[in-house]
Amino acid sequence: MGDLSVGFYNRTCPKAESIIRQVIQTRLKSNPFTTAGLLRMHFHDCFVRGCDASILIDSTKNRPSEKTAGPNLSVRGYEVIDDAKRRLEAVCPSTVSCADIITVATRDAVSLSGGPNYVVPTGRRDGLVSNPNDVNLPGPSSSIQGALQAFTAKGLTLNEMVTLLGAHTVGVSHCGFFQDRLFDFQGTGLPDPSMDSGLLAKLQGLCGKVSRPLNSDPTAFLDQNTSFAFDNQFYNQILLKKGVLQIDQELASDSSTNGVVSGFASNGMRFSQSFADAMVRMGSIDVLVGNAGEIRKNCRVFNGVTGRKGKKNPRGGF
Known about the structure:
Elements: H1 16-30, H2 34-46, H3 78-91, H4 98-112, H5 144-153, H6 158-165, E1 172-174, H7 179-183, H8 197-207, E2 219-221, H9 233-239, H10 246-253, H11 258-266, H12 268-282
Antiparallel strand pairs: 1-2
């Protein structure tokens, strides 16, 4: 984990983690989707240039950022990080990195939603590059082997991939990312036979056959049982053929992952511990430490660069 360490801010900003936690507690009261948003943001940040907060940089007229890449257009939660950063800057100016805020805020959102309250090492610094051309992430229709290639390229194992996809126990997906499963799976003109018939009928009624722009596209919970609770029910759902996304359902049917899925479905504590360990591992991917990078004063703008807030893009990823 490079020079990351537990309690990195104990001397320079001792209240850092408690300030971030207070922000998350407040946000969750008004928006229970906060946990899913931060999990996705953290994943999408770490899997591009490493966990360096490059996903937070706003695009400008002349310089697009990672936010403009297809998979990132529907990432949510930037205002949560902004809120935490403002409060931290008021107490400890230019001390706590935006990359660490993402990591700690995600941990807190998970634990406050019923998941594990794990310890995360800190000391990340913020990156100096944010390029949409660097964004190449596994998508909702990726095969198990295709997704695994992306995970192993980042030093993560098959078990950790199955574990981290368990983050789908919270959150939603737009119909456009699974509509083919409902009506014309792989060009057959028929629904995906691996989907539970009750769920299929429900989603067909919700989504319909006509594709819509993201801002009018309905959403479905990825965990149809305990949709806002961070638990192991996602794995029970996919064993019952109630996975909404193709990649989720394939976790239950693929011979390389089925055993891990079954183990997590039957043992919530095993999943919680595995998830905590996997998140710490993911949070250490290609981090900047020491004198590398910078500590941004505004998470949306590189230090010394005058930027404007990028306009929201109407189309997004899953």
